[in-house]
Amino acid sequence: MADSAAEPVFIEYETRGAVAWVWLNRPSSSNAQNYRLLDQLDAAFRRATDDDAVRVVVLAARGKHFSAGHDMGTPEKDLHLPRARSLLWDDPLTKEGAEKQYTVEQDVYLGLCRRWAEMNKPSIAMVQGACVAGGLMLAMVCDMIVASDDAFFQDPVVRMGVPGVEYTAHLWELPTRIAREFLYLGQRFSAQRFYDFGVINRVVPRDKLEEETAAIADEIATRPRFGLTLTKQAMNFIENMQGKRASMDAIFHMHHLAHAHNQLTTGNLVGGMGAKDMAKANKKAAGEG
Length: 289
Ligand code: ZN
Prior knowledge:
The chain is an alpha/beta fold. The chain has one domain (about 5-210, about 220-285): Alpha-Beta Complex (2-enoyl-CoA Hydratase, Chain A, domain 1), CATH 3.90.226. The protein has helices at about 35-50, 95-115, 135-140, 170-175, 175-185, 190-195, 210-220, 225-240, 245-265, 275-285; strands at about 10-15, 20-25, 55-60, 125, 130, 145-150, 150-155, 190, 200-205. The strands form two sheets. A six-stranded mixed beta sheet has the order 1-2-3-4-6-9, sandwiched between helices. Strand 3 (about 55-60), helix 2 and strand 4 form a beta-alpha-beta unit. The longest helix is centred in the last third of the chain and has 23 residues, at about 245-265. The mean pLDDT is about 95. Zinc ion (ZN) binds near residues 105, 166 and 255. Zinc ion (ZN) binds near residues 105, 166, 255 and 259.
């Protein structure tokens, strides 16, 4: 591990009664996810899991946006740093080519997201502003999603030649024609539109977001702990019986065929689409460019 004394902190953790509040705290980069942030998030979920007084976990975000997705090139992007791994797999830093990318994404994206989705305490994502691409992964691992009326959801990664992000739960949750539209066009869906499809639980005014989320979390927290665990397991079990896990495995492997194809044909995993190109294209898709 890197020198922990020098490690920047991207996650805040607090408890309010029986609810753990875990905050993404990298607002200057719209809570873009580097590996340190994801590892610290994993540690925060572990802390909530280990605390018997915590019944419910809220995943929230400081700043204007929930998360703009994976870090695509800030100075703090930290792919090169050694990190503790969630799976008993090889160290990707000593690998190259498709093996390197496949190994790292199995661990840090698919692996961590599945671990979090299977956390035995119910979780609620509290979403404002942008919830884009990798941001969807963090919201979708939660049991419930409460969004403010200024929130929007978008998966624009087909521009990079890949069929969705590494943990693609949203395509499984959306009706099939809408899912196709969501990916092919890569446009923003408003919180209201996601609500209409049953992908999120509440749409509330921005200034009521925290209050409404806290009310739901506090209410759930009054239920018996083991009852909540079993209920969550029942829901996860049913989803997987319906094909969620298998469908996401299939998409993950196509995602890696796409990375390999991009690397062979363009010399770049995402076809040369950097953060600036994506931001420009996304604004255009939203009618802002
Ligand atoms: Zn990827």
